[in-house]
């Protein structure tokens, strides 16, 4: 519990320092870009898996 509180305080102080120096916005933009890329890759992976499952279902329907 104490570690979590201290960790939050440290992150807050570091965030404030970065914000005051004007370095926080580029970091936020970079993080947003990374999460966007990750979400897009996940979406494409799920779409590919969905297509594969659909094709497998079609094959099973033909055999059944």
Task: Summarize the helices and strands and which ones pair or pack.
Blueprint: H1 2-20, H2 24-63
Q: What features would you highlight for this structure?
A:
mainly alpha, 0% strand, elongated
Radius of gyration: 22 Å
Anisotropy-based shape = elongated
Uncertain regions spanning at least 5 consecutive residues: none
Distance between the termini: 58 Å
Counted beta strands:
0
Counting DSSP H or I runs of 4 or more residues, the number of helices is 2
Q: Helicity range of the residues? A: over 70%
Order of helices and strands: HH
Structural class based on helices, strands and sheet pairing? mainly alpha
Describe the main β-sheet briefly: none
Residue-averaged pLDDT: 84
Beta-strand share of residues: under 5%
3D architecture notes:
With about 60 residues, the chain is mostly helical. It is about 90% helix and about 0% strand. The protein is built from 2 helices and no strands. The radius of gyration is 22 Å and the shape is elongated. The termini are far apart. The model has no long low-confidence stretch (mean pLDDT about 85).
Provide a compact summary of the structure.
This protein has two helices and no strands. With 64 residues, the protein is mainly alpha-helical.
